[in-house]
Amino acid sequence: MGIALIWSVIAFLIRWIFSKRRGAISYDSSDQTALYIRMLGACVIFKQLFSRDVRVRSQVGFEPERRGSHPYLGVDFRTLHSRAESAGSIPARRIRRLFSFQRHLLSSRLLRGVPHQNPLHILDEDYCGQARCMLEKVGSWNFDIFFFDRLTNGNSLIYLTLYLLNHYGLIELFQLDMVKVRRFLVLVQEDYHNHNPYHNSVHAADVTQAMHCYLKEPKLAKSLTSCDILLGLLAAATHDLDHPGVNQPFLIKTNHYLASLYRNTSVLENHHWRSAVGLLRETELFSHLPAEDSVNMERQLGSLILATDISRQNEYLARFRTHLDQEELCLGNASHRHFILQMALKCADICNPCRPWELSKQWSEKVTEEFFHQGDIEKKHKLEVSPLCDSSTNSIADVQIGFMTYVVEPLFAEWARFSDTRLSQTMLGHLCLNKASWKALQPEEAEFEQDGGSRALPQGSVES
Ligand SMILES: [Zn+2]
């Protein structure tokens, strides 16, 4: 009797541990046995169960020193941007997620050892009519991803990507197992940190939607292969997977293990890529393809995601300019198509300032909130505050105008040279108007702050 009880407690603990996912964990692809290093997360949870000290420290946002060389080494990404929650007040989003049936069912089914029942009906039945209507206009540049995310109960990334995979006929063409596809997308969405103000699954959904808009552009549509499209969509959906909500310099100066693992080079992008590969292998999405093909897909996925490293922007831009100046881009050439996919993903990743003002403004506020939060952490721990992260010397308008001028405008100007279409002109038009709107808000912001106001933007939008 006693032994049975002990076994049932152990079984419960194991089920609980494996159903309680942590963020994706990177592994070096040269070490094939490290595929299941994701499960290391479970070990940490085990430690939390039996160590009160660890649990308390984790709750304040820091895990105990591990791989130990710096007191800030173990910043817990999952709690970095979480707000203090008073007992008894559960955020609405958290309640929604608790009730998200397919999230629980699909993400933990396999690890809990529950046999598959066909969950194919779930999304169809759950589909809200309005969300379905919105998806019919998913190629519109005015697509409101925030509204779509609300309509889909915080599952915009899953629904949108699944819709697009179907839309392009990729599931049938690559004979993808629908259950694996859905499980993969659920895990991808889960591995984004929704406490991050900006780098969360809604941003990933937004980038995927933008990618779709670019894939439809005539030059790309007539030359891209189905494999290119599949890679483009998967790269967009996973390009910031398990983003910690802090930037690479922060990871380097805190001696974070990811910075060591990737030798301070494209640390986050390498982590996003390896995390995506981990999910592909965990869900066996491409297991039916020849090994050579799936390895090639993983490699190309990496090449696309690594291109989103903003510190390498000039390098990609220079190559793009050279190709355009010499009129040598030939989309019949696989390597040129891949380069254009890289540029398309780069554009999709930073296209927020090219969206209509009401959408663009929300993104600007979110990204600046994330920057300033990093700055606050740096100040709190007496670290040098990263550029753009100091809320006492930067404003949202300043940050945005600089970003638009030095990063977004040069990229989209070249993209418009490559793809001179109505969409490109629309994007440049919004960019120009949004920049003017931020400039118009600049003096107001300065006055507002001199009066001792907060950094929140004045209410009332500037129409563009
Ligand atoms: Zn991104």
From TrEMBL:
<feature type="region of interest" description="Disordered">
    <location>
        <begin position="444"/>
        <end position="464"/>
    </location>
</feature>
<comment type="similarity">
    <text>Belongs to the cyclic nucleotide phosphodiesterase family. PDE7 subfamily.</text>
</comment>
<dbReference type="InterPro" id="IPR023088">
    <property type="entry name" value="PDEase"/>
</dbReference>
<feature type="active site" description="Proton donor">
    <location>
        <position position="199"/>
    </location>
</feature>
<dbReference type="InterPro" id="IPR023174">
    <property type="entry name" value="PDEase_CS"/>
</dbReference>
<keyword id="KW-0114">cAMP</keyword>
<dbReference type="InterPro" id="IPR002073">
    <property type="entry name" value="PDEase_catalytic_dom"/>
</dbReference>
<dbReference type="Pfam" id="PF00233">
    <property type="entry name" value="PDEase_I"/>
</dbReference>
<dbReference type="GO" id="GO:0007165">
    <property type="term" value="P:signal transduction"/>
</dbReference>
<feature type="binding site">
    <location>
        <position position="239"/>
    </location>
    <ligand>
        <name>Zn(2+) 1</name>
    </ligand>
</feature>
<keyword id="KW-0479">Metal-binding</keyword>
<feature type="binding site">
    <location>
        <position position="349"/>
    </location>
    <ligand>
        <name>AMP</name>
    </ligand>
</feature>
<dbReference type="InterPro" id="IPR036971">
    <property type="entry name" value="PDEase_catalytic_dom_sf"/>
</dbReference>
<feature type="binding site">
    <location>
        <position position="349"/>
    </location>
    <ligand>
        <name>Zn(2+) 1</name>
    </ligand>
</feature>
<dbReference type="InterPro" id="IPR003607">
    <property type="entry name" value="HD/PDEase_dom"/>
</dbReference>
<feature type="binding site">
    <location>
        <begin position="199"/>
        <end position="203"/>
    </location>
    <ligand>
        <name>AMP</name>
    </ligand>
</feature>
<feature type="binding site">
    <location>
        <position position="240"/>
    </location>
    <ligand>
        <name>Zn(2+) 1</name>
    </ligand>
</feature>
<keyword id="KW-0378">Hydrolase</keyword>
<protein>
    <recommendedName>
        <fullName>Phosphodiesterase</fullName>
        <ecNumber>3.1.4.-</ecNumber>
    </recommendedName>
</protein>
<dbReference type="GO" id="GO:0004115">
    <property type="term" value="F:3',5'-cyclic-AMP phosphodiesterase activity"/>
</dbReference>
<feature type="domain" description="PDEase">
    <location>
        <begin position="123"/>
        <end position="445"/>
    </location>
</feature>
<feature type="binding site">
    <location>
        <position position="240"/>
    </location>
    <ligand>
        <name>Zn(2+) 2</name>
    </ligand>
</feature>
<feature type="binding site">
    <location>
        <position position="400"/>
    </location>
    <ligand>
        <name>AMP</name>
    </ligand>
</feature>
<feature type="binding site">
    <location>
        <position position="240"/>
    </location>
    <ligand>
        <name>AMP</name>
    </ligand>
</feature>
<comment type="pathway">
    <text>Purine metabolism; 3',5'-cyclic AMP degradation; AMP from 3',5'-cyclic AMP: step 1/1.</text>
</comment>
<dbReference type="GO" id="GO:0046872">
    <property type="term" value="F:metal ion binding"/>
</dbReference>
<feature type="binding site">
    <location>
        <position position="203"/>
    </location>
    <ligand>
        <name>Zn(2+) 1</name>
    </ligand>
</feature>
